[in-house]
Amino acid sequence: MAREIGEPREAKSSKVKQQKKRRSKKESKTRTVHANILYDHAKGDDNPNRHYANNKIKTTKYTLLSFLPKNLFEQFHRFANVYFVFIALLNFVPVVNAFQPELALAPVVFILSVTAIKDLWEDYRRHRSDKEINHMDCLVYSRTERRYVEKYWKELRVGDFVRLRCNEILPADVLLLSSSDPDRLCHIETATLDGETNLKQRQVVRSFLDLDCEFDPCKYNSVIECEKPNNDLNRFRGYIIHRNGRRDGLYKDNLLLRGCTVRNTEEALGIVIYAGHETKAMLNNNGPRYKRSKLERQMNVDVFWCVIILLVMCLFCAIGHGLWMYQYGDKRPVFDVLSPEGTDLSPALSAIYLFLTLIIVFQVLVPISLFVSIEIVKICQVYFIHQDMELYDEETDSQLQCRALNITEDLGQVQYIFSDKTGTLTENKMVFRRCTVAGVEYSHDANARRLAMYQEMDSEEEECTSHGGTLPRRDSVTSHQSAKVVLRSQSTKSHRRTGSRAEAKRASILSKHTAFSSPMEKDITPDPELLEKVNDCASQMEFMRFHSQPFSHLPSDLSDIIDFFIALTICNTVVVSSPNQPRQKVRRFELKSPVKTIEDFIKRFTPSRLTSGSNSSSSSSLVTTRSASHKACSSILSSPSAESTLTKLDEERSRGGTLDHAFSPVPPSYDETKSLIQEEGELRYEAESPDEAALVYAARAYKCSLVGRLPDQVTVELPHLGKLNFELLHTLGFDSTRKRMSVVVKHPLTDQITVYTKGADSVIMDLISPPATDHSKGKRQRKILFKTQNYLNVYAADGLRTLCIAKKVLSKEEYASWLRRHLEAETAIQGREELLFESALRLETNLHLLGATGIEDRLQDGVPETIASLRKAGLQIWVLTGDKQETAINIAYACKLLDPEEEIITLNAESQEACAVLLEESLHYIQAKFLCNASTDQHASRVYHQDYSALHVPAPACSPYASLHTVPFLVHRLGLVIDGRTLAYALEKSLEDKFLAVARSCRSVLCCRSTPLQKSKVVKLVRNKLKVMTLAIGDGANDVSMIQVADVGVGISGQEGMQAVMASDFALPRFRNLQKLLLVHGHWCYSRLANMILYFFYKNAMFVALIFWYQFYCGFSGSAMIDQWYLIFFNLMFSAFPQLITATLDKDVSAATLQDLPQLYMNGQNSEEYKPYMFWMNMIDAFYQSLVCFFIPYFAYSDSDVDLFTWGTPITTLALLTILLHLGIETKTWTWMNWASIVFSVCLFFTVALCYNASCPTCYSPSNPYWTMQRLLTDPLFYLLCVITPITALLPRYFYRACQGTLFPSPVHIGRQLDKLPTEIRRHLLSQTRVKLGSLGALFASRSSSFAFSRPLTKQSQRQEKAVAPPQPKSTEVTDTPRSSKHPENHLGPSQKKEKRSHSQSQRSRVSALTDLLDNTQGPLRGPSLTDTDTLPYTRELPRTGPVLEPATLTAAVESSDHAWVTSTPLLPQTECIQLTLSRPGVSPVIPNERSSESGLSSDQRFLSQEDRMEHTQTSDCPKENTLKTTFL
Amino acid sequence: MMASSYNAKEEDGHHSGASGPGSSTVKSRKPDNTAFKQQRLPAWQPILTAGTVLPAFFVIGLIFIPIGIGLYVTSNNIKEFEIDYTGIDMSSPCFNCSQSFSWNSSVPCKCSLAFSLDQPFESNVFMYYGLSNFYQNHRRYVKSRDDSQLNGDSFSLTNPSKECEPYRTSENKPIAPCGAIANSLFNDTLELFYIDPNGTRTPIPLIKKGIAWWTDKHVKFRNPGGNNSNLTAIFQGTSKPVNWRKPVYELDTDPENNGFINEDFIVWMRTAALPTFRKLYRIIQKKNNMTPTLPRGNYTLEVTYNYPVRSFEGRKRMILSTISWMGGKNPFLGIAYITVGSVCFFLGVVLLIIHHKYGNRNNSSDIPN
Fold first, then answer.
1. Catalytic site includes residue A1415
2. SS3 breakdown of chain A: % helix, strand, coil, rounded to 5?
3. What ipTM was assigned to the predicted interfaces of this complex?
4. What is the pTM of this model?
């Protein structure tokens, strides 16, 4: 479906360009679209649409005819190929030729054809996918047949009318003209575009909104003017001009984009606006950058050096030859043959000819076969990565896909990872985990167990395909599936047409469930205690209702519970649908139900549709769409009726009595619906955001289920009470500034006007009405508040998304007065948004806290472990997400990206200047922190300053491990959180350096609310400025640009669309696979290729040098003692296989060890295997070896009757043996294939030589090797040479390797030694890695040649390792005892970070007070901690022990103001922090109080565990520990 | 871990077999769990450390040194005599002859050199002529021949290859044999006389057959015209190489050694690898077991001096040598073996020291005691 999008389309872009050019002459800046049916021919001259691109896409590069020339042309873009062809052609010039010209062509032809075949195959694949897409069907209105007929996608043209059915993929960008939906909406799923699975609403063009009858294309005669094709997915502007001259605006809400899927809408009609390559989806994909791996770039430098060496050698020989000839003067020696013409060659001319000849002879030095070999090896590597079972995901039956064949080794050199969050780190499945109501926590242990079971199921990966399982959970799965059979068959049908089975399967998986309704999300196991309470409460209420008692008699905790669930059920925008009519809204029936009473009538037209549309500022399209649609309706309908409501209200107030109608039996229409529902099975909820769905499902688990939603009323089914209709008065939609949403309803039981509010804990807690101080109720209230806050902290620490639920009861008077002003706001012309916003603020005050929920955005399996392990591997991980800040932070904590003990810098700025100031401040802050450390470590400060001043010069690299000559940049234990808007400012040219300076010194960076473009900008910035290897991983189309920009793009081929996958270089089923992909395959690929490249250089140099030495003995005449056949085929045949086998199969360290010791990954990051000096070392070794191989035979045969080729053949043999044995030394694992390949190579050489030497006595001039090899094989001298020469040649290398292995083993070497140990010992060793890691880090550091930096390097590596290592025990602790409140002082960090005054948007750095506190108390410790590696483990422990040991001080500090916290720190540089923290809104004093008391409560328990830990740490030697403790105390 | 993955695979197989019609058509993409595909091939993983390579060094040392000694002894047992007859010195008998630069002066210049052998040559003696500074391996020189012509191809006889230029035609007639190599054929004649203690000069029989490779003589080089023994007729219409005194069919009287299959010619055509080379000229066969082939005493070398070498500062030598299983006298290989063996042994000792000093350091940090 969206496959085309990821494909390279250079051809396309040029095509589009051409068309654009052509068109630009004709039209101005807009595109005018007429309906095609007005014209005879779509392409006819009169059709104004004829110039627009049609819907056929073509992403192939070649056609059958153009393949050969075009492909050759492209191949000759590669310098190497040109060079080799040049040399081959040079051979045809008689004066300079060295070989038989035809023979010299062989390697070039071979290489070109291999590449051509590969290209052909790739292009064929593209062609097939294009064809598949072009031949998908869609319904197009036919002028002649006057009905919709099936047409291929490619036949679609701009101006065509298309009919879209449910679950159909949009073939082009279509303007929505009609929809079967009663609200004239069309729901689309944009998963393929932006990765979001939830539904988006698109609206029919306004002019066609009130069309009662079916839309008739024949009657359409309007003209559409819109902007030219552009790639902005979120923008579409234009207007439609009707025949009568009326103009209506068109917005992005009217446009359905290609690649999206129509959902939930039976039928939609539209007119094609953009087609084919001009659709937004296609334009959004600028062709992928040609990726050349880092290793290859490095290699190219060395190839360049090879060319230089070659030229030097040739020049040397040429001069030598000239001099040699010159010395004979006029006495021409008999062996100096005249030129063919019989003329005398002057020495100079002869030298010039010789120069060219030698270039031919020495051509092997520039490794022609290297390029082909690399390609072959990479294909093999890709094959093995493909075949890895651990990278296979049974659930989706997807395995890793390598889509880029040429950057496998980059996987081993990545330094920065940029990750998407939703769908990448998380499963994008929100699951209700636990809740607290009225201060009582319901831990939902059973639910947790259930989730754990899913987890197991995931890991077992076998459950999903099985039928007839015995587990009850499984039953629900199957029933769910069976219910969807209709849908599935329907959808698969539509997908069958695509031809691709895999795609169809994936699509069926996609459509199988409504968004956010996998069984895991739906089937919530209720907490028995709470369930009982709900039942209890409901029955009491029923009783009361029966006895007409006022509900105020209900115990407050019980009423809280029922209110809590009602709030969960109705405080949302969830739409109910029933499964038999897939995604068909139930409300259609309801709308047709007759209006029964006047009240009803009035009710229907109360201004409940008016929502606070204050969120147009937010980029979320969900809310805007909805509110916009409502606005559209209401502007026509509601204004007069709003007045009537007011009057009605007044009336009611005067009556003051209770209305019976709330208790009236459920209207018959509902019964109808109900029976329908009962028949069809359960209801399904269409939610706009996953957590809404989760909450509704959670409430349903408590029998409090949402059964219907009308624009003005919500129906809820409660146990015992049956169905209740809540009159929906207002919906104040969610927006990111308020961070909450509210509904105003009329409670049917109490008949009170009730506001239910749901929102982020930080905002809700501030809005809770302060508890009365005097009586017991107030006390209880306060207690509930404390407890809830406490649980919220626990939830947050567990990585749950927390939401607070509150309610407020309005008296009629209050409501009336509010309503009045609200209506004013709604009708205001100027500043309506602000007024509505304020209106919402007025309503949401003095709330009564009901409870809080903890929703888990379930992380994918193994994400925290993967992140920890990748961190250990020296990778910097940044998360770039479009999600809102709180969610992102929560997830970051959950996946251990952020550490609760880490300080977090939050950057939220509203303007460029503010952002600048903010960055400046943060820099100062970091610097200040750093300076206080620097007081103990001067060296470190110097490093920092160097770097800071060097920022404007493009800093070479950020990672301390990057390379030797880079300035190490200390990565602090800091987290940076930045939101999209600020990011936009920070990415400006003027600020990007500062931003980078801040970001790179943070351990983790989190960019929230970032657009796809920003994502790619960030990646680009880091990549270009820091000169590091970047990897971007994501799953949705919003990650596509980032994936394309990064050095390595990884797509998650999960349930989301295929766009990211199409754009990616590698597609993984799961995030956790990244670990193996990078740590194991990346490492292997890198080390294999690096070694192979080095070996190749060596091999060629060694071989060529033999001939070079010979020039000294043949008058520099360019003569070669090696037969031309051997010369040409040596690389291609004789020495090729072993090296290919080794480069494909060699494993320096086993996969298990690589995963257990992620530090080994730094080997690749630092390019340890292939450093520039290694090239030269290899060259020197090659020259030495060739000297040996040349001079041993030379002396052995000196002054003998040996002839040229009888002497040259042994040398060739010796060189071959030496080269193979050299490979043997470098081979780390010898499988039978290695043995076989070496034996094969040797045998091949002798066989070929024997056959060749026996084949033709007169051919192969000039070598004429007849019977040479045969004779040699009878010569004992030959064997003697074969023994001594390779051994002598390899002696130094062998000796060096042995010494290296003993004296200064590399970490990889240690890893290999670990490999050899028996499993238990290895386990044991790895479990005590601490010592080991240190030594490993030290090893890395010690390898750096620069002495000055070796210390910080050591520090860095150790710090990083250790910093990451400890969280493991902690995480286990968390899961073991989920209920125990653990270290609240740590949990407060995140929760407080979230709190932010809603409308104070001034620039300020949001450094959490608590983390500040931790940090400040830690201040003196930090210094040594940074400088002294030994103390590091304790700096993590101490902040925890601190408050426990000294709770009194903490409490004191807490009870005093914010100020006191900061100023209590004696360190001077901390004044910087004061400035920062002062601007932060004060922490509500209640919470810290609570917290400290809480910490006091649980301190005993924690104290124990702390002591445990202390004991544990004491086991390893730490002389500083005592001093540290005292400093702290 | 491995076991579990095997299990998983089996179960997967069950599923794909047993599951419903929907999935039976869709083959699982799960990779095969084979050792090869999972990169788990059993492998030998040598780790190069001082400890592990120690034995190799000692073994090499222990093997090479005896071999070297053996080779050295063998080489020393070979008797070799060499005499330079270039005639550079005024005192040299051949000085006069060497002054001539001409290749084919009508009057051959003769000179004789006296020498004495200190030791008798027991077995077959090989007589070589040696040239120095003669770059027979020059690229253009090496190429300058036509193998098909030499193979007796009648077409090539009259149409020699272009490679032979500028020695392809002379006086509009094709040259046979063409090319620079043939043109510069060594044409000195060497004769050896034993001077009895009583003063009589006994000519030593020099065998001129069997000096070329068998394959060369019988396969590579053939006279044109098949069995026709009348070489003169066959070579009608061709010209002799410019530097030659006689045409190719007059190289020898023996029809088995005349024309292209003349062994002196064949030997010359096998271009030497290095600028200083020797070529087998004659063989002095051992008569019987009682008398040495060349007894101790005085000899005279009679040279018909035709071959000019002064233009390239060349030297001409005559070499007499016996031959062992490993060829001519060359002590180099023996010395090389001894040297390499000793070096290996020495390095072995060094490694031993390293191993003892540092080798355990790693292990102690790796392996808990």
1. no
2. 55, 15, 30
3. 0.92
4. 0.73
